[in-house]
Specification:
Order of helices and strands: EEHHHHHHHHHH
Shape: elongated
CATH topology of the largest domain: Tetracycline Repressor, domain 2
CATH class of the largest domain: Mainly Alpha
Strand content: under 5%
CATH architecture of the largest domain: Orthogonal Bundle
Structural class: mainly alpha
Length: 207
């Protein structure tokens, strides 16, 4: 994560390019509120209060609560796609790239678990148009992992009968880390990333 990124719950977050500062503060506050209370139980007053602003000030930057969630979801999915695309299109064998993709993706979900929970589990709270945009990004995320698995099968590195199903299982495994990871637990995000990379390579029958 770059040093320009803001934090939510003490975690690094990908809001560095959001301007002005007030808009960025509202995003951070919304992430914390949505993760703690859920989207539907959170009010715009809750978000503004966390950001140290008046409710009226929020509407200068975001027309609705859903617009806040949409922007959080879009930025988060774009970051996830960037992580996987970098790994998928890097150098090395399919085995090496899949391990890198999984470990990086898991570290992001563990290290930024508050944001990741909102990004991954509040999709149904979005309206049809916003949801369609995020689903398109999800398909790109799926495509990056699927491409590595397909290449591994083609080169004989992987033994996979159902590429689509295996890709879904790999992504589900990684994403679920955001739900259970505890910063006070026995493993660091890096250790969980290494563990999951090993598990996934076993899943695909890496030689």
């Amino acid at each position: 994560m770059s040093t320009a990124e803001e934090t939510a719950g003490g975690e690094p977050q990908p809001w560095g390019e959001v301007t002005p500062d007030a808009a960025r503060r509202l995003l951070v506050a919304a992430v914390e509120a949505f993760a703690e209370r859920g989207y539907h139980a959170t009010t715009t007053r809750d978000i503004a209060g966390r950001a140290g602003m008046s409710p009226a000030a929020l509407y200068i930057h975001y027309k609705t609560k859903e617009e806040l969630l949409h922007r959080i979801s879009r930025i988060g999915h774009e970051k996830a796609l960037e992580i996987l695309r970098t790994a998928a299109r890097g150098e090395g064998s399919a085995t090496e790239r899949l391990a890198d993709a999984v470990s990086s993706f898991v570290r992001w979900h563990a290290g930024g678990r508050t944001t990741a929970r909102v990004v991954q589990y509040e999709l149904e709270s979005l309206g049809p148009d916003a949801r369609a945009e995020i689903l398109a990004l999800r398909r790109q995320v799926d495509g990056e992992v699927r491409r590595i698995v397909e290449e591994g099968v083609e080169t004989g590195e992987f033994d996979v009968l159902d590429v689509h199903g295996t890709t879904l299982a790999v992504l589900s495994l990684c994403i679920d880390v955001a739900r259970w990871f505890n910063v006070d637990g026995p493993r660091t995000p890096e250790e969980v990333g290494d563990l999951y990379a090993d598990l996934v390579l076993r899943m695909v029958g890496a030689k």
